[in-house]
Design goal:
This protein has four helices and no strands. α1 (about 20-30) crosses α2 (about 40-55) and α2 (about 40-55) crosses α4 (about 85-100). It has helices at about 20-30, 40-55, 65-75, 85-100. The protein has about 100 residues and is an all-alpha fold.
C-alpha cells in the first residue's frame, strides 16, 4: 500500500520567539522594570518587534522608515497600550531579531 503525506513547512527566520524570551526579559529588567508595567505587558511589544525583524519586507531598512507603519499597526491592534510606552521595546525586538536573521 502506498501512502502519501504532505507537510507544509514554514521557514523560521531567527528561530522562534521563545528562544529570545530570556534576552527580552533581561532587557525589560534593565530598562523597564521600574516603569510601572510588568514584563507580561511588555512582551507583546518584544514579540511584535521580533515579528518585524523576521519579515523580509523590512530587511535592509532602518527604523525611521519602519516606525510609522509599525506605529499604525500597534495602535490598531493594541488600543490599551500606548505606542509611546512600548515603542522602544518594539524597536529593541526588531533590532535584535533582524541582526540575528542576517
Amino acid at each position: 500500500t502506498a501512502r502519501r503525506t504532505e507537510v507544509d513547512v514554514e521557514p523560521i527566520h531567527g528561530g522562534d520567539f521563545s528562544a529570545h524570551r530570556d534576552t527580552f526579559r533581561n532587557h525589560y529588567q534593565t530598562h523597564y522594570a521600574s516603569s510601572g508595567f510588568t514584563y507580561d505587558q511588555y512582551e507583546p511589544a518584544y514579540r511584535y518587534g521580533y515579528d518585524l525583524g523576521t519579515e523580509g519586507q523590512y530587511a535592509g531598512r532602518d527604523w525611521s522608515a519602519i516606525e510609522p507603519e509599525a506605529r499604525r499597526y500597534w495602535n490598531q491592534h493594541h488600543k490599551d497600550s500606548q505606542w509611546e510606552n512600548f515603542k522602544d521595546a518594539v524597536r529593541h525586538g526588531w533590532e535584535r531579531t533582524k541582526d540575528a536573521v542576517r
